[in-house]
Amino acid sequence: MFARKVIPALHRSFNYCRHSSSSGSSHYDLVVIGGGSGGLACSKEAAALGKRVAVLDYVQPSPQGSTWGLGGTCVNVGCIPKKLMHQAALVGHMIKNSSRLGWNVPGNIEHDWTTLCSNVTGYVRSLNWGYRVQLHDKSVDYVNGWGSFLDANTVVVVDKKQNRQEITADQFVIAVGGRPQYPDIEGASEFGITSDDIFTLKHPPGKTLVVGASYVALECAGFLHGLGYNTSVMVRSICLRGFDQGMAELVSGHMEREGTRFLRNSTPLKLERGTGEKEVLVSWQTVASDGSVSQHQEVFNTVLFATGRTASTKSLGLEDLGVHLHPSSGKVIGSPGCPEQSSLPHITAVGDVLEGCPELTPVAVRAGKLLAGRLFGSSSEQMDYSMVPTTVFTPLEYGCVGQSEEAALQQNGEENVEVFHAFYKPLEYALTDMDSGSCYTKVVCVKAGSQHRVVGFHFLGPNAGEVTQGFALSLRLGMTYEQLSSVIGIHPTSAEEVVKLNITKRSGKDPTVSAC
């Protein structure tokens, strides 16, 4: 934790621009609108290059009143609290499976939601404070207010007390990210919540319906079920759109076998107050394979919508300036050769607010640093958005980098694609009842003469993020299957199954690993 008493005047200085003139206006080399991962990285890098920088950040409360501190989605209502709750669920699984490992565990193990939320919130707040200290130490002015453009070089900043201030700058970076969207149905925002609310929910969620099949939906459903709550997932079409669909089916199949209910081909129609306290009556429809439609109703304690996100650009005034925004997502449209460059020369964007950009924290951080180097330093290095690794933190983690099998086949043709794959059982599962039926890995290769260039890596199993991070560099450097298979594995690990891959899908052979 950061000791506030060490810098007694620090807290007060964060609520206004320390370099304001007597007229109430200030001029900067750079103003960053949005205090998330990309915006903070860009601001600190620009300050390190000797520029005068301000960060404007303000969180509009969610429909349920949730709000948070500096740091953006990842720190407050995304990656960090999600991973902590995911870890809590994994610990629960291990406790339940520990008796065969010699541990004498009481039969009735209960989880305390309030304790978990309190500890997660405390950790997140320490990070909020840490970001503020970093900005202070780098002489970046932090303004806790919402900024919108008055003209091309002026923003009006309004804080929560409705105090107004005008700030001018030579350059602006838009880094406002996005917020979850609610479906346009009766009662959605009144009785439903989103990922903006789940991590600070004041009461245990109880029986929960997660609407959506994105990685956010499946991650939330996964840790909620793992913490002991009756959880259902409502899927309109497919799970994990944009990811390899073979892997997506394995992910959802594992969750179903573990007890998460999937309501497939279903869409919500209405939410209304139930008869009991903290009850929501949900009406939905399901389309059968023959096209027939059936109506359903059920009572849940919590309904969590994870049906997509919308960029927080609506009230910035960007369109009035001539900045091109995507008509449906509201994201900033970049320029050919420089994805971060908007249609105006002095306005750029980084992070989730940028159209076509992977919505991942490390992507935003690197893009923000590189952007500052191009704007104020001597660098000309552009962000490379290809071969970006990521992991879905479902109960059985899914890590990947590069192309899906479907994309490789579509781009190169079936005759030019070879997929090496294997089902395996992690050794740590051996003395437990944990389900290894979906533990699977594959590399997608494109034939290049006598070699096979690896264009996609996919790994489903424990610690998938740690495994995938290591192989990501290899794919960026153009690794071939022949090089991969020449690597000596670390035994006994799940990662060694990747370098042992030797069975192709085309062969039709059983890919199940049966021995060490």
The proportion of residues in beta strands is 15-25%
Number of strands: 21
C-alpha-based Rg, rounded: 25 Å
Runs in which pLDDT lies below 50 for 5 or more consecutive residues are 1-24
By secondary-structure content and strand pairing, the structural class works out as: alpha/beta
The major sheet is characterized as:
7 strands, mixed
Q: What would you call the shape?
A: globular
Intertermini distance: 45 Å
Amount of helix: 25-40%
Number of helical segments?
15
Mean pLDDT: 94
Features:
5-stranded antiparallel sheet, disordered N terminus
Structural notes for this entry:
The protein has 516 residues and is an alpha/beta fold. It has 15 helices and 21 strands. The chain has helices at residues 10-13, 37-48, 72-77, 79-96, 113-137, 188-191, 195-198, 215-226, 245-258, 318-321, 361-376, 405-412, 464-476, 481-485, 496-499, and strands spanning 25-33, 53-56, 141-143, 146-151, 154-158, 164-174, 178-180, 208-211, 231-235, 261-264, 266-273, 280-287, 293-300, 302-305, 309-311, 347-349, 390-392, 398-402, 417-423, 440-448, 451-460. Strands 1, 2, 3, 4, 5, 6 and 16 form a 7-stranded mixed sheet that branches. Strands 17-18-21-20-19 form a 5-stranded antiparallel sheet, sandwiched between helices. Strands 10-9-8-14 form a 4-stranded parallel sheet, with helices on one face. Helix 2 packs parallel to helix 11 (361-376), helix 4 runs antiparallel to helix 5 (113-137) and helix 4 packs parallel to helix 8 (215-226). 42% of the residues are buried.
